[in-house]
Amino acid sequence: MAEAELASLQSLLIDAELQLKTLQQQLDVFAQHYRHMAAGLAGELETLNARIAAILAGRLHEQGFDQDSHPWVDIPSEDSTSAEQLLLPDFAPSASLQSLYREAAKRFHPDLSENDEDHTWRTQMMRQANAAFAAGDSETLRRLLTQQAPVVSTATQTNSVLAALYEKIQRVRSRLNTVLQNQRDAETSDLGLLYTQAEKSGLNLTEFLRDLVVTVRAEIYEKRALLRTLLDKESTNGKRA
Amino acid sequence: MESGPEDRGLKPTYETRDLSAGALKTSLQVASKDALAADDTALIRQQRPYLCALSNESIRLAVKEPPMWEYRLYFQALADLVGNATATSGDTTTPQLIKGPLETANWIGERFDEYQRLAERINTLVNTQLQVALGPPGQSGDAAAIVSVANRVAEVYKRFLGIRNEALSLHVWPEMAGVSREFAKICDGSIEEFKTYPVRSLDTLMTALATADENTELVLNFEMKLKADTKRFSSELRRARKHLGVV
């Protein structure tokens, strides 16, 4: 009964680990593209919005914004064409890569270890497997799977078999909860939500971000014009006073 | 990326790594404002039948009107319609055209004249009707009129596909080989140009917009290159006719 439960939990954990690792890698690639193409412009728009909000609320000086500064002079130029060449491609693991990763997680997952020695070995192996998966390196994953686990020394097997089994179930369950929570956190982070928008758009990452850049840039120009008008107004009012 | 089975308890914190949380929020707001829900696109297709055959991206451009949406809609709609026409072009089989060498020469000559008329028609559509549909500078364009022009240009593409299919079914007479080869080049070149032109133009436009400066006037060339090597074709046709005893 306990063995069946462990097997079922292990299977769930391996799937969840694969999903989390895939999502994290996809977000990493997306973050890299976003940083190159849109982050600076979005930051500029955020600053303009904050300045306009401060003026409208009559708190320009309280906010520490200098009326003489000219936020419209320097717009970050993110050259999408040159940057794209250095960017990683979208992360879309093949079925065989996923299968290899599943196999590796089944063999090396530290939470399935028998003792400390085994845990150390598994941790090292899993780290290499994670790096290979992120790099889409099937060969390394295959090579790792041929590695023999160290012989578990009987001296460390002090617990009864059943107690060890329950302990393992506990560890796997705990890790599964952590993985699922991490997955939810990643999905609901702003980057995760933006990535979901990109996926839903039907465009590829570069097209989506370029589209975003064009809209952000247009908004920046509008906001600069508005800011100029507001600052002019403030200046006129100041002179009258 | 450090998280994974070996580092339990580590929480991914994407916003705090080296991306500004505020900039990300701003990006998310802009993207959300500009996005269309799947339910919306279905409803919009019902409300605006002229958008029915077009992709979700075309619908989004027509409804959300992002910067330079008129040009983007035209190119996107044309890419959609050319893609649709290409996908269905293999559905109809053209019966084999059995013609003698002279008939073949005449048929190719007529198709070439038609090809030139069609190329001229595209010029008229783009230089007059599209300009009206796009609207005067600083004013919004007419989405239905833009899609209508894209449809008419795509109709010309369909006719090009038809001519090519008919040409493929012709018997190639030895004395007509040169004419057939040159005519095939014209057909293939035009079809290839139709397939790549909207995507290429959209790419040029978006790259320019993404890096444009507000004080610099944007000058872009969206010329469709349907220019065939008419000299070679005409010379081959003349030679074949002469060979067949037709002056």
If classified by CATH, what would the architecture of chain B be? Up-down Bundle
Q: What's the β-strand tally of chain B? A: 0
Low-confidence regions of chain B? 6-16
Radius of gyration of chain A: 26 Å
Number of domains of chain B: 1
CATH topology of chain B: A middle domain of Talin 1
- The ordered string of helix (H) and strand (E) elements of chain B is HHHHHHHH
Describe the structure.
The complex is a heterodimer of chains A (241) and B (247). Chain A has 241 residues and is mainly alpha-helical. Chain A is built from 9 helices and no strands. In chain A, helix 1 crosses helix 9 (205-240) and helix 7 (161-188) crosses helix 8. Residues 66-76 and 79-84 of chain A have low confidence and may be disordered. Chain B has 247 residues and is mainly alpha-helical. Chain B has one domain: A middle domain of Talin 1, CATH 1.20.1420. Helices cover 66% and strands 0% of the residues of chain B. Chain B starts with 20 loop residues before the first helix and ends with a helix. The interface between A and B is large, with 69 and 46 residues.
Which properties best describe this structure?
heterodimer, A: 241 residues, mainly alpha, 0% strand, B: 247 residues, A middle domain of Talin 1, 66% helix, elongated
Layout of strands and helices, then pairs:
The complex is a heterodimer of chains A (241) and B (247).
Chain A: H1 2-37, H2 39-56, H3 80-84, H4 95-108, H5 116-134, H6 138-145, H7 161-188, H8 190-201, H9 205-240
Helix pairs in contact in A: 1-4, 1-7, 1-9, 2-9, 4-5, 4-6, 5-6, 7-8
Chain B: H1 21-34, H2 38-47, H3 56-64, H4 69-88, H5 101-134, H6 143-168, H7 177-211, H8 230-243
Brief summary:
The complex is a heterodimer of chains A (241) and B (247). Chain A has 241 residues and is mostly helical.
